[in-house]
């Protein structure tokens, strides 16, 4: 999502821009040439990363070698510092400008990463206004650019139009379920949110639920609904997460970017997360 919003802004400024690397459908909509689909890297937690380490390391190595052959004007690594910083350092050492978008939370934990970033990147694009000063004090160029979601979500939430689009009446109480966008997240979080929805429906039979699904993952969600939320008045949406947030009265949401989206839509939320027990420790 963040990469697609950034790419959209870049294409607006430089319409002839060519962009390639690792990305998903939203980026492809802007003409992005996806050498690898982004969901190949969509893992989180120590156990999950270890399980896929060989594949992820192989993609990173192959990406680095291909970029060195292509010699782009710049490489922009979006978030994912454990994947991107080593790659950025390799490219920077070979004269390719390395830019990192979305600063790691060096101000909150693992602060020593800022030292690694000094050798890895030419510039950091920050989403929080206090971050550039931290980098400046460590000799790293950084610019506050704000969060692209602030431009993507209107100040005046289109609640009425969104409720009409989702066939919700003014009298309906709607709950949006957002269990995450990665397959590994959905596998752990969706059953919890669906179980909560079933209990809420039992206590308040009039409730309506909407669940936006990332394109391509409907087949993962549908059996979970049958198992954990059979009989729940639930509408499954293909994408349309912003409509769901605009229309709902409250959201049960996985911790992550979606919580910021819910805040920008001015929706009250209950934030949840779940993962492999070993990763949790």
Helix content: 40-55%
The best one-word shape is globular
Q: How many domains is the backbone divided into?
A: 2
- Residues in β-strands, percent: 15-25%
Content-based structural category: alpha/beta
Question: Cα distance, first to last residue?
Answer: 29 Å
- Computed CA radius of gyration, to the nearest angstrom: 20 Å
Broad CATH class of the largest domain? Alpha Beta
Number of helices: 14
CATH-defined architecture of the largest domain = 3-Layer(aba) Sandwich
Sequence stretches where pLDDT stays below 50 over 5 or more residues: none
Strand order of the largest sheet: 9-8-7-10-11
CATH topology of the largest domain, by name, is Rossmann fold
* Average pLDDT over all residues: 90
H and E string: HEHEHHEHEHEHEHHEHEHEHEHEH
Largest sheet: 5 strands, parallel
Quick one: how many beta strands?
11
3D architecture notes:
46% of the residues lie in helices and 18% in strands. It has two domains: 2-151, Rossmann fold (3-Layer(aba) Sandwich); 159-280, Rossmann fold, CATH 3.40.50. It has a five-stranded parallel beta sheet, with helices on both faces. A four-stranded parallel beta sheet has the order 3-4-5-6. Strands 1-2 form a two-stranded parallel ribbon. It is α/β, with parallel strands linked by helices and 281 residues long. It has helices spanning 2-13, 25-28, 46-51, 53-70, 81-93, 113-120, 131-136, 149-152, 159-165, 183-203, 218-228, 241-247, 257-264, 277-280; strands at 20-23, 33-37, 74-78, 97-101, 123-126, 142-144, 174-178, 208-213, 234-238, 250-254, 269-272. It is globular. The chain contains 14 helices and eleven strands.
């Amino acid at each position: 999502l963040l990469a697609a919003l950034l790419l959209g802004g870049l294409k607006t400024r430089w319409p002839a821009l060519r962009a390639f690397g690792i990305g998903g459908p939203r980026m492809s909509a802007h003409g992005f040439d996806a050498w690898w689909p982004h969901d190949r890297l969509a893992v989180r937690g120590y156990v999950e990363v270890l399980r896929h380490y060989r594949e992820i390391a192989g993609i990173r190595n192959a990406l680095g070698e291909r970029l060195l052959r292509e010699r782009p004007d710049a490489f922009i690594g979006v978030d994912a510092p454990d994947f991107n910083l080593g790659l950025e350092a390799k490219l920077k050492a070979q004269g390719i400008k390395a830019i990192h978008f979305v600063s790691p939370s060096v101000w909150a934990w693992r602060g020593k990463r800022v030292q690694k970033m000094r050798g890895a990147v030419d510039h950091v694009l920050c989403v929080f206004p206090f971050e550039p000063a931290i980098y400046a004090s460590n000799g790293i160029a950084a610019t506050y650019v704000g969060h692209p979601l602030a431009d993507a979500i209107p100040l005046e939430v289109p609640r009425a139009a969104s409720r009409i689009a989702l066939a919700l009446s003014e009298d309906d109480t709607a709950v949006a379920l957002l269990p995450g966008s990665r397959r590994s997240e959905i596998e752990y979080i969706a059953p919890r949110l669906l179980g909560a929805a079933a209990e809420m429906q039992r206590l308040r039979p009039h409730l309506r639920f909407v669940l936006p699904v990332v394109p391509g993952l409907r087949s993962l969600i549908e059996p979970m609904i049958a198992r954990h939320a059979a009989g729940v008045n639930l509408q499954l949406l293909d994408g349309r997460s912003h409509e769901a947030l605009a229309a709902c009265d409250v959201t049960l949401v996985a911790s992550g970017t979606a919580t910021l989206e819910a805040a920008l839509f001015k929706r009250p939320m209950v934030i949840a997360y779940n993962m492999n027990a070993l990763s949790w420790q």
